[in-house]
Amino acid sequence: MELMSTELIDWSRAQFALTALYHFLFVPLTLGLSFIVAIMETIYVKTGDLKWKTITRFWMTLFAINFAIGVATGLIMEFEFGTNWANYSWFVGDIFGAPLAVEGILAFFMESTFFAVMFFGWNKVSKGFHLLSTWLVAVGSNLSAFWILVANGWMQYPVGMEFNPDTVRNEMASFWDVALSPVAVAKFLHTIGSGYVIGGLFVIGVSAWMILKGRDVLEAKRSMVVGASFGLLVSIFLAVSGDESAYQAAQHQPVKLAAMEGLYKGEERAGIIAVGILNPDKKIGDDLHPIYGDIEIPYALSFLGYHDVDAFVPGLDDLVLGNEKYGIEGAASKIEKGKIAIKALEEYKEAKKADDQTAMSEARKLLDEYMPYFGYGYLEKPTDIVPPIALTFYSFHIMVGLGMWFIILFLIVLYLTMANDITRFRKVLWLALLSIPLGYVAAEAGWVVAEVGRQPWAIQDLMPVGIAATDIDAGNVQVSFWLFALLFTALLIAEIKIMLRQIAIGIKGGH
Amino acid sequence: MFETLSLHALQVYWWIIIALLGGLFVFIMFIQGGQTLLNQLSSTEDEKTMLVNSLGRKWELGFTTLVLFGGALFAAFPKFYATSFGGAYWLWLGILFSFIVQAVSYEYRKKEGNFLGSKTYEAFLFINGSVGTILLGIAISTFFSGAAFTLDDNNFVHWDVGTRGLEALMEPLNYLLAFAMLFLVRIIGGMYFLNNIDHEPIRTRTRGMIKRNIVYFLPFFLGFVGWVLLKDGYAYNPETLEVSLVSMHHLTTFLEMPYLAGMFLIGVVMVLVAVFNSVFREKNCCIFTVGIGTVLTVMALLLNVGLNNTVFYPSTTDLQSSLTIVNAAGSHYTLTAMSYASLMVPFVLAYIAYVWYAMDRVKITEEEITSSDEHHY
User: Fold this and answer.
1) How sure is the predictor about B367, in pLDDT bands with cuts at 50, 70 and 90?
2) C-alpha dihedral over A361, A366, A368, A372, to 10 degrees?
3) Is the same domain home to A208 and A296?
4) Based on the domain organization, do A243 and A124 belong to the same domain?
């Protein structure tokens, strides 16, 4: 295996990031709004109140506009592992392909089949069957999120597999270890949580705008009750699942956690930086103070990462250079072990060609022992294990800060809607409206933390991005990058314009 | 249950599933076929809207089948997924782009403020139906004609030509299948309209269209079948796995596996019967006959290229790099696990069939399309 050119890797990563971030502009709203419309339709079916049917259909129309572009941007994700990460697809395809296929069988058909009933079935099927279809669309969307996050979780924490030197790939050893990996489950809960919060923000934001404009006020207020109660519940759930995600990062990706917190020197009873600016001159191993103007929440990081306020949280210095006192192995030693694994694989191949059984079994033994370090062998220097710190740090803090804001916002909006007359609180309505884009900022920042924080790995410890890409001239990827950028941007503009127009038409205005 | 099967039995089982999915996908491409007929079969805007809405209730099924096809190949034959998608980069990206633009077009075409204008979205639908179908046909044809790749000792793919998949467009024989598919999906699309839309002017135009398209279809289809059966086929020795060219291997496979040949012939006959019934006996129910016929025909062809020690993705530059169901498949464990997942397929097909039935009991009419109480595309 050889490292590809930096240019190719950069363009391949850029294209994947571009398509994934675009896709994730639409997915969260699908996840959240699907449940919200299902709740609204349930109220309609229970009460028989036609106003609720009008409300349901309005939000369903917005759902469909968003859903279409989510489907469009999602297609490439299914194939891009092959087109742009072919080596990766072979090296781990025996494990990674399974959740994608299961997603197709279990989730996508459910979504697409019942989607047609949900939109065209109002006068064709019974009320009960229609309601069931709406719920099944929501369940299908969330199931699909589960399986794709199982795949992503596996990249962060590869489990349930064995390396086969004959085929030069990793092979699945336990489906359930892969599917129910704690990282996958935490990722699933946190990601759908973010989708639900965006659903809630979208509904209260759009409803707030209608109230501000004095249009369809009654319907908007009713929507607001559903959006705010749903939003409050799920934003608390999001915080809890975020805590679990951080715990999993501490257990399995300590470098990522250290980068998220800008923690260089590990410490016991470590605190969390609530606010701060990174010192741009700070390097691994020097004595500069890493963060300016920091406000710290004491003990919080130890507790978050290890559920123990006294725990030692390793910093980047410890992880890169090693820390004997706490038994932390430095990257240099891991790189050496990785090189042994790579050499053993080559020796195995040679011995196999020569049909030398003894040499084969010796090489195999060595390989099995050092395989957990395999990917390190492709790194050049110890600091290569560190992801871009600033991007990871700021994204994480923006995400957490916004997450807190959403809880407060839902609380205020719900209180004012239920116990008071929200229509009189115009500033709150404006805040609700302006918080819609913030939901997207938080969700995308979350992905940046997860994926940029994973660097340099395509698969944690096993395969750096440098050997994972398809062997292709970088120019090809550059061209396809711009094609995607152009097309997705055009479609995004169309989506937003149509959405705004539909909102302007209003709840009672049509569907 | 599946654990006890041999690795090879699982490989065969999964190739059968891939062939079935391939067959179902070509059938559901009646949506693509229909998308090329929107102007031809309508004379008013309302008629066009009826056609769009008729397809609009099914397009996601086709899209989903394509996605599942990708996922199933990844899981069951990961070497194909890595080699072909990574190697024939532009061929596959071309196909994907045509489907990306399809996905928004139904929903956005008639919406106010749609930025690009209705005509653009209609053009997207047409491009997906025509260019998308032709590119897919060419991609599938490379299963028979081969591609220029080498796999290294890590099984990583290296494409041997800089055109990255576009070279398949320069091979004239690949167009036989491409155009056969285009005309076939237009025919099936027509039969879907006959069944789904209760509107006489559209039905009359559709029957005429089917009559013309079967005439275009047959030479391309027969040309493709003749080429495949008479050409040298790529086959491997089951003991040594060594790949070599074998004279008329695909014909031999049909002769050695007569049930495959039978499946193929029954499929073709069903398609022809469906065309005859639609055009001359003016029946509207032939979508199911033509559907089963298409699935059987495509399945038989894909089984022919995968079974009987045949190479299903030949390398023209390094014969021994060619992919077979033996060397491209997943491990015994993964294929077993996926086989359990595949037990869900009949259940999925059952609810799709039920929903199809429940939704299409009432056919699309002009009144429905012009009613303001309905969701329309």
Assistant:
1) confident
2) -160
3) no
4) yes
